[in-house]
TrEMBL record:
Domain Protein SirB1 N-terminal: 46-194
Signal peptide: none
Name recorded for this polypeptide: Protein SirB1 N-terminal domain-containing protein
Record-stated family: Belongs to the UPF0162 family.
Pfam (any one): Transglut_core2
Length: 278
């Protein structure tokens, strides 16, 4: 059996690198879904990303961003068939990089990771754009000449107006210039884990998936403090009353100065969890 503790230590270390390896972090997430698989899927996925990058033309970083976007769309979207569909939102595999590379289907953010990692290996100026509700990819200079592409739609090049329609369709909010800022690897990884948590939260029988997604999120350098409370609730739900109560008490200490009423409510929940042992 693969060492879960070792994999998580590796995830925590990789997340704290000066320049985190986005592909590796996403592959380690996928490893949590199949802990028996070991290192082979991680190595195979890295080799596949390298192979795909080798199929791109040698354009150079000075090539017009649109040429890079078109080259990626032609290779990944047309020749290889990477894209998404509404049905992909209902599958855990759509958030696992190993499975996205195998099935060539996934959520917008995972397909964008494929686009970014293949493009980066080929020398393209590429970055992720965390639009609310729909992740896309940028080529070129974020605050200069650039183009946006939608990997979920096979790499279709987007105008700013079309990007605004994606945001409005997903959230009802208008597009703001700050939304086009490059997404940092840790931000991308947290969003991937949030998607997994949301998938599992809608399926109470998969609280195991929600728990490991929360626990990986807590290993990131920056994460919402409330994730500690979510982990505590999951521990109690899964029968670890002592562990869950302890987590609740620690969370209550963290928020006590700012939210004393909420902290007291959490302490009462901790006492109730301990009482379930009697």
């Amino acid at each position: 059996m693969y060492d879960t503790t070792g994999r998580r230590a590796r995830f925590a270390e990789a997340a704290r690198e000066t320049r985190p390896d986005l592909a590796l972090l996403c592959l380690l997430i996928a490893g949590e879904a199949d802990p028996e698989a070991g290192e082979e899927p991680v190595d195979a996925a890295q080799i596949e990303l390298d192979r795909l990058a080798g199929l791109l033309p040698a354009l150079g970083r000075q090539a017009h961003p649109r040429r890079w976007a078109e080259a990626l769309a032609e290779l990944l979207g047309e020749r290889c068939g990477f894209h998404g569909s509404p049905a992909d939102y209902r599958r855990l595999e759509s958030s696992l990089l190993t499975e996205v590379l195998r099935r060539r289907r996934g959520l917008p953010i995972l397909l964008s990771v494929v686009w970014m990692e293949v493009a980066r290996r080929a020398g393209a100026p590429v970055y992720g754009v965390a639009l609310p509700g729909h992740f896309v990819v940028g080529f070129g200079e974020p605050y200069g000449q650039h183009v946006l592409a939608d990997p979920f739609d096979g790499g279709r090049i987007l105008s700013e107006e079309e990007a605004g329609l994606l945001v409005a369709g997903a959230t009802g909010a208008p597009l703001a210039p700050a939304m086009f800022s490059p997404a940092e690897p840790a931000e991308i990884v947290l969003r991937v884990l949030n998607n997994i948590r949301a998938w599992a939260a809608a399926r109470p029988e998969r609280s195991d998936v929600q728990l490991w997604a929360v626990e990986l999120s807590l290993l990131l350098p920056s994460h919402p403090a409330r994730l500690r409370y979510e982990r505590a609730e999951l521990l109690v739900e899964r029968g670890d009353f002592v562990g869950g109560a302890h987590e609740m008490e620690e969370y209550a200490e963290v928020i006590d100065a700012l939210e004393p009423t909420v902290a007291e409510t959490v302490r009462r929940q901790a006492r109730a969890a301990r009482a379930m042992l009697n």
